[in-house]
Write a structure and sequence with these properties.
Belongs to the tRNA methyltransferase O family. With 239 residues, the chain is mainly β. It folds into 2 domains: 135 residues, YaeB-like (Elongation Factor Tu (Ef-tu), domain 3); 78 residues, RelE-like (YaeB-like fold). Helices cover 10% and strands 31% of the residues. The chain has 3 helices and 12 strands, in the order ββββββββαβααβββ. The strands form 3 sheets. A 6-stranded antiparallel barrel has the order 1-2-7-6-3-8. A 4-stranded mixed β-sheet has the order 9-12-11-10. Strand 6 and strand 7 form a beta hairpin. The longest helix is centred in the last third of the chain and has 10 residues. The radius of gyration is 19 Å and the shape is globular. The model has no long low-confidence stretch (mean pLDDT 89).
């Protein structure tokens, strides 16, 4: 069996560290699915505008294609300390490294690169190959009585509040002067999810962290009751 990508994701997540662990947790994260020329045909999307959300089937391409699979994994949801079977998880290291995400669909656009599908609430690395798109059908796809095992839904009580230092706020004004990029919202939502690996709670002395979003390097520090964004600057690759 052979599968060919229909397109590639362009997302703000240029680094695997910081990608939310599930789709739609960071609603400020907009992305585009840039379609390969063979599939960039508007008639292939006829009637999709009647659906608010779509399923995206994609490949975990970063470090996964050659790494092979593991029968057990340690999910971040369990703090990285308890093992579960790979088929009881959404870990990327699978027999076939295929991912599945339900995301908001914002319509087709034409860009300099060709036809693209706008998406919101993605959890995919920039450059991710996409295998297929399917409409999300609420009456069939949503199962309110379903059990979710160890994957308990996050709540507002588990998210850390996020504040910006004066220097970080000044940088936001510089990199997003009119707010059209929604940088403050994106950074706030990503850091509020606490992207640190679960095992780091065993090293309470470590308080400083950093990750890349788009072309920017975001630095933050854990305070007693919040996360403080200390600096926002161009990432090394963008300088």
């Amino acid at each position: 069996m052979r599968c060919n990508p229909i397109g590639y994701i362009r997302s703000p997540y240029t680094d695997t560290f910081g990608i939310p662990r599930q789709p739609r947790l960071v609603t400020a994260a907009e992305a585009r699915l840039e379609l390969c020329p063979a599939f960039a045909r508007e008639e292939a999307f006829k009637a999709l505008d009647g659906f608010s959300h779509v399923w995206i089937l994609f490949i975990f391409h970063h470090d996964c294609l050659e790494a092979g699979w593991k029968p057990t994994v340690r999910p971040p949801r369990l703090g990285g300390r308890q093992s579960v079977g790979v088929f009881a998880s959404r870990a990327p290291y699978r027999p076939n490294p295929i991912g599945l995400s339900a995301v908001e669909h914002l319509g087709l656009i034409r860009t300099a690169s060709g036809l693209a599908l706008r998406l919101r609430g993605v959890d995919m690395l920039d450059g991710t190959p996409v295998l297929d798109i399917k409409p999300y059908v609420p009456y069939a796809d949503a199962i309110p009585e379903a059990r979710s095992g160890f994957a308990v839904a996050p709540t507002a009580l588990t998210a850390r509040s996020v504040r910006f230092s004066a220097a970080a706020s000044a940088a936001l004004t510089r990199y997003d002067p009119d707010g059209s990029r929604a940088l403050r919202e994106l950074i706030t939502q990503v850091i509020a999810q606490d992207p640190r690996p679960g095992y780091l709670d065993r090293y309470p002395e470590r308080r400083e962290f950093g990750l890349n979003l788009m072309e920017l390097a975001i630095h933050w520090r854990l305070e007693s009751d919040h996360s403080l964004i200390t600096a926002i600057e161009l990432a090394a690759a963008a300088r």
